[in-house]
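#structure-requests
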Amino acid sequence: MTTRKKIDIAVIGSGDSLYAKEPKVYPREIEGRFQRWRTIAVFWLLGMFYAFPWISIGGQQLVLFDLPARRFHVFGLTFWPQDFYLLTLLLIIAALSLFFFTAVAGRLWCGYACPQTVWTEVFLWMERKIEGNRNARMRLDKAPWSLEKLGRKSAKQFVWITFSLWTGFTFVGFFTPIRELGSSLMQGSIGGWEGFWILFYGFATYGNAGFLREQVCKYMCPYARFQSAMFDRDTLVISYDPLRGEPRAHRKREAERFAPASVELVIENALDSTLPAGHERVLGDCIDCLACVQVCPTGIDIRDGLQIECIACAACIDACDEVMDKMHYPRGLIRYTTENALVGKQQRLLRPRTLIYATILTGVIAAFVWLVSSRDAVIIEVLHDRNALFRTLGQGAIENSYNVKLVNKTDADMLLSLRTETGLPLRMIGKPAVTLAPNEVFSLPLTLRADAGASSGRQPISVLVIDTDGKIVARGKTHFFAPEKP
């Protein structure tokens, strides 16, 4: 016997589209302990970004990446291209920090410090101030165009664009002295590259924080895709407790949630610490109010489990705790916890993975601090004369000429002199010395002479830079050339 099944086939006409537009997310504003920490993080991070270019130490901008001069001024220290290895260490520290904090507590970076999150919060705050709360914004978008809607939308766009341009201007101010940049902008004489990057970074801020928002986190950011490699069952993540929350249902505060249970159910429900002894749940603590969904900036439902769209902002925790307080239920239905803790196993924050990350991170930070504090105050580069390896003088004496390039990396004048360190009987012609201004680059000629027969072939030597206290502040290596002895 043949069984026939009726199959409904949806035929897509030429006028239909396979693309479903992503629904707009309207996150509701919420207060709570985690949101206070996020607000502090936003003020701190944006405060550093917008204030640092305007702060000066000793007449030098606090943070300035002077690319044309190949100098980088950071908190009173000047770094040169020769210090590039320090940047490498800094990037290693950033990567290890990301691994460590992700292994311990999930996506803390995304929820509290990521630029996309920080600027999106600012743009959302502007939107709330101009268009109103979540319900008001939804009504405004659905309403037909009117003078009020046009006014509010125009005002929001004006504020967004102004703030974005100021952000672009500040960004360029980290690479061009911001006071000079501001003066050029006021006079209309700003350079083409500066103008381009102000507009480019301003447009990027406007587009990412104003329109793309959660789309950047959900589809463009690669971090969400590889975070699982750093998670384990003891990683603190934002989780919904289904043992306590289910079955979910709307109810009044006085609704009875518990009933006497059989022995089997008592044993099965032992993991739920909020259950009265000898009872089972008739209703879970989740009242299905959707507050956790309404406050989520990416529009997910945390009750469906951990998702790559979750940026760990903890807004759902604050929203749920507020509802639990109103219902007179214990807090923590949604909370920071681990997968092991949810199933009643011991929670271990200190484990091999986190200990290894912490040890390596501490070592790299210590190495970075030591290298920064022990940097040479002077850069020396000894270049041998390219025209001739050596010159033969009367009575067989040999001379070599050099060009010694010196860089004063400090913020004070330095009187420097040169001295050789070698086993050869070399004489320095003259007494080369120079006074270098802060961050000055200077080329100093140097001539070394050896008597006849005192040297043969290529011999390594060192050129030392001596300060006024007789201290060696830099050491350069080169060679002394002489004819080969027969």
